[in-house]
Design goal:
The protein contains 14 helices and 20 strands. With 529 residues, it is of the alpha/beta class. The strands form five sheets. Strands 1, 2, 3, 4, 5, 6, 17 and 18 form an eight-stranded mixed sheet that branches. The chain has a five-stranded parallel sheet with strand order 7-16-8-9-12, with helices on one face. The protein has a three-stranded antiparallel sheet with strand order 13-14-15, with no helix packed on it. Helix 3 links the parallel strand 8 and strand 9. Helix 10 packs parallel to helix 12. The longest helix is centred in the last third of the chain and has 31 residues. The radius of gyration is 27 Å and the shape is globular. The N and C termini lie far apart (56 Å). The relative contact order is 0.12. It binds flavin-adenine dinucleotide. Flavin-adenine dinucleotide binds next to strand 4 and helix 10. This is FAD/NAD(P)-binding domain-containing protein.
């Protein structure tokens, strides 16, 4: 949560308001056994903060959390962070050109308001644990119950009957870990199958780490290679419908499931939808763990939680000591109220345009100087979201700089630009692999609008966002900025013309006269047509 404060005649300052008491975001909250990234660590990190010391290809939660903590310490962000401070509301004041931001001290529940020129919503998409509405009665349960994102390390699972609801990325990571102990009896309640690929995990040798640290460009080239391979997977797996590559991928993954899971589960475990429609799971030995005598799968729909355990739609009650929800996250900011220039809240704005949408997942019309990280349609199903967030940050900084330098007061994306961009996004999505199944990427509305995925390679996202087109934004109080920009453009054009003239003069000294050069170029052009 980043806000820039407005203090007249003072330099602007950045404040990070964080509702919890430490850094790390999801990597602070998710401490379940086996928690880790499913993108190679060298790419699941900042391009400006490469880390030669990642211990293995896929990093674990403690390592990723330590990585973010170290960045926070190195850049002295402690002096700019207010912990235990939840942003509960922000309202744009068009006259003063600031947001009035309401903050709540999480410990004392006291509130205060601060003004900010720029309001940056960097609350992530995965901080609010989601409990499915069709599994009511949690309070009735006599045993212990928790969500995977709030792991209860104080509860000893030894000798317990544990019900795990869900088989997405989190469930698939911790089921193999908790079931390593044969006294823990795990029943995994699932309702839809997932595509899985083997997790080719390996540790980096100390020599490799030394090379990464000391030999120039090697680590960056290695990172670029991981990036390029992911992009390649986008083109073969995600970019069209029912392509040869997709069918081949389905065959390969089906074979993997057949050869790894117990035969009695195989038919139900192989999905009918194309891979990628839901996030593909990088299998941390989940399929293998299903073969353990203390692990079983249950496909019967759940009716609700009762005192003794889980009641199924068939009326059967499965007695349990512990229930763990591995049911993902609520993607909408439930508590937070952001009000824009027209007095509408962000959620009302989203409702008026058919669901969460933004320009480059970053900015929204009628909300000046408001930016999001990981906003609507930002995630790549195949890639590191850190990359897309960096792209968004670079874009937003180009708009924030004039505000900080006081050459402009606010920027707001134009409605026609926003609409055109989102029509394009939804058109591409409708022809993509993501339209073939219900997933957390899509709203549970009639049209099942996909609000999470950017339907393209991340290189395309970078290309679209790399440079702000200022004509796409409405600017207020930007006369000085516009003047400077025009001046800069004139200087660039003049400089280019001068450079061309110098080159021409140099060439003519060498006997290449300009008219003959033009004639030569024309001849070449005519020949090639
Ligand atoms: C278990 C797990 C594994 C994942 N693995 C991968 C992966 O391998 N690859 C990948 O690309 N992505 C992965 N993701 C997605 C992941 O969310 C992002 O990669 C990354 O965390 C985004 O960072 P962020 O800082 O934007 O958001 P977050 O990490 O979610 O941080 C947001 C912060 O904002 C704070 N906050 C929220 N609301 C408020 C408020 N109102 N006021 C103040 N503070 C607030 C939260 O407490 C949190 O600290 C994973 C997610 C989870 C949950």
């Amino acid at each position: 949560m980043v806000v820039k404060r407005a203090d007249a005649d003072q330099p602007h300052i950045i404040i990070i308001y964080e509702k919890c008491d430490g850094v790390g975001g999801v990597w602070r909250d998710n401490t379940y056994p086996g928690c880790g990234s499913d993108v190679g660590a060298h790419w699941y990190s900042l391009s400006s903060e490469l880390n030669p010391d990642w211990t293995s290809y896929y990093a674990t939660q403690p390592e990723i959390r330590a990585y973010w903590q170290s960045i926070w310490e190195r850049h002295d962000l402690a002096s700019r962070t207010a912990f235990d401070t939840e942003v509960v509301a922000a309202e744009w004041d068009d006259t003063a050109q600031v947001y009035h931001v309401t903050l709540e001290d999480v410990k004392s529940s006291t509130r205060r308001t601060e003004d900010a020129n720029v309001f940056w919503w960097a609350a992530g998409g995965f901080h609010a644990p989601f409990y499915p509405e069709d599994v009511p009665g949690v309070k009735e349960f006599r045993g212990e119950v928790w969500h995977s994102a709030r792991w209860r390390h104080d509860v000893d699972l030894r000798g317990k009957r544990v019900g795990v609801i869900g088989n997405g990325c989190s469930g698939a990571q911790f089921v193999p870990k908790i079931s390593e102990d044969p006294s823990v009896r795990v029943t995994n309640f699932v309702r839809s199958p997932q595509w899985l690929v083997p997790r080719n995990q390996f540790k980096y040798w100390s020599t490799t780490k030394w090379i990464f640290r000391h030999v120039p460009f090697v680590m960056r080239a290695y990172r670029a290679m991981i990036f390029a391979i992911s992009e390649f997977y986008y083109f073969v797996g995600f970019s069209g419908e029912n392509t040869v590559a997709q069918r081949k991928g389905m065959d390969e993954m089906s074979n993997y499931i057949r050869s790894t899971a117990p035969p009695e589960y195989v038919d139900q475990l192989i999905p009918k939808y194309p891979p990628g429609c839901k996030r593909v799971i990088i299998d941390p030995q989940y399929l293998e763990s299903l073969g353990r005598p203390n692990v079983s799968l249950n496909w019967t729909a759940i009716n609700g939680v009762v005192e003794e355990g889980l009641e199924l739609k068939t009326g059967e009650v499965v007695p349990l000591d512990v229930i763990i929800f591995a049911t993902g996250f609520s993607l909408l900011p439930a508590r937070m109220k952001i009000i824009g220039r027209e007095g509408k809240s962000l959620l009302e704005f989203f409702d008026s345009v058919g669901g969460p949408s933004a320009y480059l997942g970053l900015s929204v019309p009628t909300f000046p100087n408001f930016y999001m990280c990981l906003g609507p349609n930002t995630a790549g199903g195949h890639a590191s979201v850190i990359f897309n967030e960096e792209v968004q940050i670079d874009h937003a900084l180009q708009l924030i700089k004039p505000v900080v330098r006081r050459t402009a007061r606010s920027f707001e994306v134009r409605t026609d630009v926003f609409t055109r961009y989102n029509e394009w996004i939804q058109r591409r999505l409708s022809r993509s692999v993501w339209s073939h199944c219900q997933s957390y990427y899509r709203m549970r509305s009639a049209d099942g609008r996909n609000v999470a995925i950017f339907p393209g390679p991340v290189t395309l996202f970078w290309w679209l966002a790399r440079k702000v087109k200022f004509e796409d934004y409405k600017a207020v109080g930007a006369e000085r900025f516009e003047k400077r920009r025009r001046g800069k453009r004139v200087r660039t054009v003049t400089g280019t013309l001068l450079a061309l003239l110098l080159v021409a003069a140099g060439l003519s000294r060498l006997g290449w006269e300009l008219p003959s050069l033009v004639r030569y170029a024309l001849r070449l052009g005519l020949k090639s047509t």
